[in-house]
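Sequence, structure tokens quoted for completeness.
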Amino acid sequence: MRRVVLFLFALLITTGAAAQESVIQCGPAIGPTEEVRPGQGFMTLSDIVGHLSAAAPGLKIERVRQTALAVPTVELAVLRPDTFRSPAEWRAAWFEAVVHPSGARLDANRLIRGRVHPPVAEDQLTPLVAEFPSLPGGWWPSRWDVYVFACIDPGYDPAVSIGNGRAVRAFARQPMYVSSLNLSAAVGLGCALALYLGLAVAAAQTQSRQYAFARASAAREGRGISRLAFFLQPPVIMQDAFGHCSLARFQVLLFTLVITGVYAYVMVRTGSLPNLSPTVLGLLGITLAGSALARVAEGPVVDTPNRLWLLGTGVLDPSPRLPRWHDLITGEGEIDVTRVQALAFSIFAAAALVVNGTGDLERFEIPDQINYLMGISQAVYVAGKALPRDAAKRLNEEIRALREAERAALADPGDAAALKAFETARNGVGSVLFDVFGERFDDSALRRLTPGRREPPPQPEL
């Protein structure tokens, strides 16, 4: 018995919800404890069809456009028509909206009710937002007629009252295309992927020697690597001329791909070229400026004479360096906290742009504090590039000391103290070389190094 009662109760709720969808409230909803007053009630969709068939549009609307929100949403502005005799009467109006397939005969079963915000008039010009959550979706745009109603309490003019005490004082009809959410999302994602694929093709044209080295290294480990898989890796696309995955390039690439995808989505969704908000322009400006200044401020880790000496002695492998993800947050053998901070806030801003920017790219904003933090992070990151690092400074000093010890030992081959000083300098520079150059440092070549010896470096397997 209890199950039967619960089933009937659920059926009653479902039926009530379905009945609610078949009417236009056209006024504040009646609460369960409220007394029915004049001006409250509803209009059936059949009454709406009859009114639309018999009357002419008298409501003036402008600035009609579809938004980029996932739920089909129309923004418009309603002007106070002459049928409303006073501002007080206009402020008493209540707005409703329905849509109907364009080109089809009006049918109550094909009318779809929307939600209007705000539902009441404000001043001479009232901006409205109409949402239609139950609008059928698909892959292709569809054409609909949007009807906006301005209802009024029958107490103002009982002669025009229809239905259950409701009065439609004026309505407007606006035909418009409603774009497909699926198609818009596919175009946005496709544009971002196409741009990324183009960058991968460009990388394949400029980094062929690096790919050959990576393939040979993978073959020695008993695995293979395809050309497409190698150049689709983000670190390969974001690397600089020395084979390091650059944080500045990552930020530019991240925001370029995100803004390209979001812009394409909004353009297809709204049917027009969207404007970029100051926040979006600010994000692009911060990352582009940071990338440019970082390239200007960045200097070589090792001085040119020291690098040539390392390459000539075989201590440093001349093979192409393969970029790694950890290059984004490490530099010269240490984790750079400024890079970690800049990376974190860049990811947060990009995620916010994808989540909120797709709804309204023109008015997309992030808190000013995030902009300030990103700007400070970029400034500290660029300043860190410009200032000499401890590891680089120490490395250059130790290599110069090793070269001077070599010259002293060559000047007097019989000087045991000079040879001892050379061996001491040689043994001490190894740890710093490993911290800075990683796998490119050949420890065995350094251990075999003697004054004046120039062992040719191994040829890379291409």
In short: The chain is about 50% helix and 15% strand.
